Amino acid sequence: MPRRVTPFVDGEYYHCFNKTISGDGIFLNSNTVEVFCEIAWFYRSQKGNRRYSHFSRLNGSDRGDFVKILDNSRYFNADILAYSVMPNHFHFILKQSNNGSIESMMRNVLISFTRHYNTLNKRKGPLFLTQFKAVRILSQDQLLHTTRYVHLNHYSSGIISSIDKLTEVPSSYHVYIYGEKDLLVNYEFVTKVFGTNKEKYKNFVEKNAEYQKTLDYIKHTKKWNL
Q1: I want to staple 114 with a disulfide (CB 3.0 to 4.6 A). Which of 8, 62, 93, 127 is the partner?
Q2: Which whole-number Å values give the CA distances from 115 to 53, 91, 141, 164, in the listed order?
Q3: What is the pTM of this model?
Q4: Phi and psi angles of residue 158, each rounded to the nearest 5 degrees, phi first
């Protein structure tokens, strides 16, 4: 894997994304998305040090005890602030917890999901580009705008035609708007900015929806054709 020019820094935020090698859609049903998100949740923890496939076969108290460990933020490789799963690519906004943890987490997620997808579809070989893209977020303002970009992705790309459907797509937007429980997402930083009134964040996102369709204000994603 090529060496990164800009290393990950502990405590800093990153917009991480990757797409399928072929450009073909793989996240086309809720089951596939659910498995991908659970794999991301599993490897978010440093304690996800066994194969996800082994964990998925656990049941009863063994599974429950392990889930408690995986949900303990003390062991997180990274906080996941937002995500969006598109048909042929995905976005995460991550805050690194310790040295090398984002790269370790993402590597495990991509390997594990590829293994799962290949087994299910009787295929071989890599599924995603060799190196995921990562852009460091340098300010709170940029962080907020990047969450908006990620949450609008299904609409601005034309996958959904109505902004009213935005809470129904596979992303963390429904968590931000409805306060629904989600194993992946820590959205406390938005609460610090917008307070507990979730309508303020909703307006922040949706009033920019048409503008985002016409202006690619996060340039690195356009260059990558996302």
Answers
A1: 127
A2: 9, 20, 37, 35
A3: 0.89
A4: 90, 5
